[in-house]
Amino acid sequence: MKKVVLQLDLHGDRIKQKAMKTASGLSGVESVSVHMKDMKMIVLGDIDPVSAVSKLRKCCHTEIVSVGPAKEEKKENVEPAKVPVPLKLHEAYPLYYQMTPHYGQSHYVTSYEEDPSGCVIC
Question: Which stretches make up the HMA domain (predicted)?
Fold first, then answer.
């Protein structure tokens, strides 16, 4: 997990929203935060900082300030509560493959005249 701090040239809320939407759309991003006073964006996650900057430069001027490991919170050693073991249910029989229905045969009836050169009106 990396912590990437980026310097952005933000002039308004609309550009800030576009930058946050672009940064959150990157693969591997877990959290995005923007500090408007410092004009800095902090991105946490498994991301490539160079690709993040190239995507963000499409909406505003962007520079990399720092890249480093994210600080992990210290967790106290707390024993997890014992979870009761669920009963194992019997598995249902699997469904069989349904065959497609067979279509009936169609018969075409043709009629032949005895005299093929006969008059149509008669």
Answer: 1-67
